[in-house]
Amino acid sequence: MLKYNCLERSGVMHLPDFKVARSSEKIDYKKKDYKLDSKYLGKYKGKKCYLKTYGCQMNEHDSENIKGILELLGFSFTENIEEADLVLLNTCSIRENAHNKAFGLLGKAKHIKESKRDLMIGLCGCMAQEEIVVNTIMKKYPFVNFVIGTHNFYQLPEILENSEEKQQIEVYSREGDLIEDLPVDRTSKYKAYVNIIYGCDKFCTYCIVPYTRGRQRSREKEDILKEIDNLIKEGYKEVTLLGQNVNAYGKDLYDDYSLAELLEDVAKTNIPRIRFMTSHPWDFTDDMIEVIAKYPNIMPSVHLPVQSGSDRILKLMGRRYTKDKYLTLFHKMKEMIPNVAISTDIIVGFPGESEEDFEETLKLVRECKYDNAYTFIYSPRVGTPASRLPDNITKEEKEQRLYKLNEIVNTYFRENNEKLVGKKVPVLVEGISDKKNEYFGYSDTNKLINFIGEDVKLGSIVLVEIIEAKTWSLDGKVSK
Ligand code: 5AD
Ligand code: SF4
Asked: Measured on CA atoms in the order 391, 394, 399, 404, is the torsion positive or negative?
């Protein structure tokens, strides 16, 4: 329970509540265009912000919007926290270590504030959506000026202003409005993230995302295509269509317009490269596979999290597929999409995972020989159903399983890379390394390629002949 004086001290507008977030009531939101009140334009001119982003591509893209807003307010950005006037953390709650890192940085910011009293400190992103985090901040972190949830970071100007007086807590438990035309300062000049769907309705039992990001809301196709047309005009070469579960795109908006149709419409814009992530195997249709196979500008690269190879654990995770169903989809993709690279996510040490369950995962990995895999030890998240399951596996056992799994997945990364030696692959050139005539970029199958060339133009797509394979990258030279 919150102590009365915490609420008194804070300008609390809305507090997070997981029960409300979970409720299956029909969601009700409006679409609005972003508009900044002119009184905020340049209000903080000359001030510097240290913005730290944790977590997934969704958060990275939110930070691009946050930067866009703060720039309109007059902020510039610094990598040096000591010279900042505003320290802003865009946080992630998917695993315990992301939490710990953010609290560690808050501690550092507190220390700086002791000798710099007008330093502003703010927390936004997924951790801001957690009741337990917000209660802790209100009770024990009075030096934090504001907490803003994932659904309302566009309200930053007002909240920043109000927090000069009192700690501000503004977190919606249910979805807020869907805001179009947010200002944006993109990290890359060639590759852009484009949100297509927010939130997730899958409620996998271990996952906190449906509570922190809310229920599934698709953007209208016209808004997505307009954003992509503008990106093409600005010279962008690649878009990544983003969502926690992109395959569910359109289900909340249209009767018969899905990710397959959207991918096809984006492909017809002729932007050179299209990617999309993340895909849930449950919603992946044959139509989607056909469209990916048909258009050369849809990259042959699919991120298809499996999480576990044991049917018993998949059921406890609430994943809605069996190992066989996953493998059928996996092999269909391999067969129908020429040259496709498939990557995955795997969790080890889910509550009750036996040695046999873990062996099932290894068996599946040996069959799929993934091009890339993100592997994690299960991390209990407060409020999720899995956190209430009995868990009798020791930390050491979990670590050993992760180690064993990593050894196996790494051998396949390297084996798959070795198959490319002597071949020519298209690479979008993203940067120059410190050494003369050395560049880097990503292949169509999303592999990091370091290569040698002369006068190569950044942002162009060049053919690179692969000379050497490593585990996580490849070396090559521009093909004549
Ligand atoms: N513990 C460990 N890993 C998790 N993931 C999601 N929730 C948890 C958790 N509680 C992993 C899943 C997901 C990826 C983004 O993070 O593998 O696909
Ligand atoms: Fe979390 Fe992904 Fe499952 Fe959604 S589909 S609940 S984001 S793991």
From this structure: negative
